[in-house]
Amino acid sequence: MKKIFKISMLCASVLGAQASFANEFWSADRQWLLGDWNGERTALEDKGYKFTASITSESATNLHGGYNDNNTFENAAQLSLGANFDLSKIAGWNNTTAALSITKRDGDALTLSRIKDPRSSTLGNSQEIYGRGKIWRLTQAWIKTGFDDNRVQFKIGRMGMSEDFNASQCEFQNLLLCGGQLGKSIGSIWYNWPVSLWAANVKYQFAPEWSLGVGVYEVNPDNVKTNSNSDGFNLDMNNVEGATIPVELAWKPQLQVFNGLAGEYKIGALYSTAEAKDLKNSKTHDGKYSFWLNAQQQLTQHNADPKRGLFISFNGVINDRATTAVESTQQLALWYKGPFDSRPQDSIALGLANYMVNDRLTDRQTETNESLGYYSYDALATDYTPIQQDELNVELSYSYQWSPALTLKPNLQYIYQPAGVKEVADAWVAGLTLKANF
Questions:
Q1: Tell me, what CATH number does 159's domain have?
Q2: What does pTM read for this prediction?
Q3: How far apart, in Å, are the Cα atoms of 191 and each of 85, 169, 217, 315, 324?
Q4: Would you state the pLDDT for residue 400?
Q5: How many CB atoms lie under 10 A from the CB of residue 238?
Q6: Residue 402, Cβ density class (10 Å: 0-12 exposed, 13-18 middle, ≥19 buried)
Q7: SS (H, E, C) 211-264
Q8: Alpha carbons 385 and 231: distance in angstroms, whole number
Q9: End-to-end Cα spacing for the chain
Q10: Would you call 251 exposed, middle or buried from its count of C-beta atoms within 10 A (0-12, 13-18, 19+)?
Q11: Distances from the Cα of 229 to the Cαs of 2, 130, 197, 247, 301, in angstroms?
Q12: Cis peptide before 253 (omega within 30 of 0)
């Protein structure tokens, strides 16, 4: 939808007028750009009905380096429409909620047009919102209910995998620095937002600080088709190839730990029953596996405000070497929430993320090229396969929250060895994320 970009730019163009519209349409405490509907919105939420609409725009321009250093500007955008239902209020079903959402993505990616060698498979992306097709998608359609004083929660329906497993904070525009990490390296079996699939999971809080979750998610390539809008609403299970089964143990320390500062630590593993091809030969494996660690901790607190201060996170993934091109990923991030008393909702963040390409893939690429007579990098040959190794992504960003309804996030990114190809010049990218809640 080209209108997404136009609306995003319209939102940005009003940023010089905050004083003129104080406590009005663009006031700093505005919850939604379209307002409270004369009180009807709050009244509906009190009855259990919450409606959401948002536009996210991610723009990027290449400053230096990359495969093609001709400067250009690319924008990717997403429209999300959703509803959440508190069924304890609506129908008297205790501890039960439901969600429904649809999304539409559009735009183009700078990484594809300028940063990486077009003959290489993509590793990172300077605009995390790009991907999974420019189509409408059913992103959520699930119901969740709790038992045993809500210590046991059961969820079933259409959902993304990182909603409940391998979830992490997102303070950045770069793909590997934002959200769940598994979908970036095993995207054939692990589907992040906006893709949904049939699934069920259960989480059990067996102690005040500890919980254990397990889920079953279909592996169905039909869910990631992008030919038409009907692909985004595929509900059949005709081509299911197996199931992905994640297990995750989470620890949330009580307040007396770490000087009373909040944190969360998770370790997890998955096994996919779908057949997987070996990277180097014609062998087919019965399945594949991955392991992960997510850790997030508040390090300092600003003026006794638990929402302000310095935070740190680390996310690591180890994948099955026999079948997975990206052997592992590592992400480290620091961000300071509320750096200025006059801007308590803003944040400044620095993140580093690394893709480690499996040397079994590198060996196969080398062997393929040598069989065609290529013993060094060829910038022109269409049948040459660039040799991929590691890629490092670094981003510095500032999140400026005009109000709960409108956020701007300018950022500067550095990509070392784009797509893991050492012959491609390291790239510098300037980006801007805009999010508007209507």
A1: 2.40.160.180
A2: 0.91
A3: 24, 17, 9, 18, 15
A4: 97
A5: 7
A6: buried
A7: EEEEEEEEECHHHHCCCCHHHHHCCCCCCCCEEEEEEEEEECCCCCHHHHCCEE
A8: 31
A9: 17
A10: middle
A11: 16, 17, 16, 32, 46
A12: no
Closest CA to 288 of 254, 313, 318, 314: 318
Q: pLDDT tens for residues 130-155?
A: 999 999 999 999 999 999 999 999 99
pLDDT band at 24 (very low <50, low <70, confident <90, very high): low
The Cα–Cα gap between 309 and 349 comes to 12
pLDDT of residue 404: 92
Q: 67 and 418 in contact (C-beta within 8 Å)?
A: yes
Mean pLDDT over 252-272 rounds to 89
Domains in the chain, number: 1
Instruction: Give residue-wise pLDDT tens across range 413-424.
Output: 999 999 999 999
Task: Name residue 172's amino acid.
Answer: F
| Domain of residue 173, residue span | 2-437
Report the 10 Å Cβ neighbour count for 377.
Answer: 15
What H or E segment, with its residue span, contains residue 184?
helix 182-185
Mean pLDDT of 29-55: 93
